[in-house]
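=== Structural record ===
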Amino acid sequence: NPFDAEPGWGDLPGGRTWGSTSAIYPAPDGRSIWVGERCEANTCGDRPELDPILHFDLDGNLLGSFGAGLIVWPHGLFVDDDGNVWVADARGDGERGHQVWKFSPEGEVLMTLGTKGVAGEGDYVFDQPSDVYVAPDGSIFVADGHGRGNNNRIVKYDAEGTYLMEWGGTGNDDGQFRDPHALAMDSEGRLYVGDRANNRIQVFTQDGEHLDTWHQFGRPSGIFIDDDDVMYVVDSESNRTWGNNPGFQRGLRIGDVGDAVVDHFIPD
């Protein structure tokens, strides 16, 4: 581990305290960080007055925030090349949730996918979507299903939000999932899916053709691939008291996608 920890980063407004932090993502200019935060707790369902999407400079100074009253359980976060912020809301309360949101950097709603407050399976219906990723050509990928027994699929849309295709299903064979929890893409356009409850990452073409499976990065809760094809995989669940992925430790594994070797490990 060649990195040093810097605890206490990120100043929140008005005496607000940190709750569960579901995701972070850099802005395209590399000068700021977007954060999904669950309203001082592990849900925003009963705190509609708080903004769950926070924007910080690299020193942790708050630049702005938005999303109050819109999102129940912010989960995956993605920022596209235009600076638009995409958020997967992985729970619902009957009136909100089970959607993917596209916001402008100022918080204007530009697009939604999914049916508000409805959990199910259809071209435009999700059940606890965990993550979203937008490819360079504008194609939108949604990891649909949080937990082992939900939809367990990847859904693809065009840049306008029109349904194109999907793949997956529940299981541990190639192309199947048990809790598809995270999405990332390398410089060659390969899509990486954190198949969390199967303790693996699966690699696909953008049309769902299975290319590879990696177990050496642990039990992935989050994946990020930088411009140099270095992959960062957050494992928040291995070796927990109920026996997930025995033999692995929680932490952050880092390695190049070219050789798939874990070069660094930052422990929990």
Remarks:
- The radius of gyration is 17 Å.
- The first strand starts at residue 21 and ends at 26.
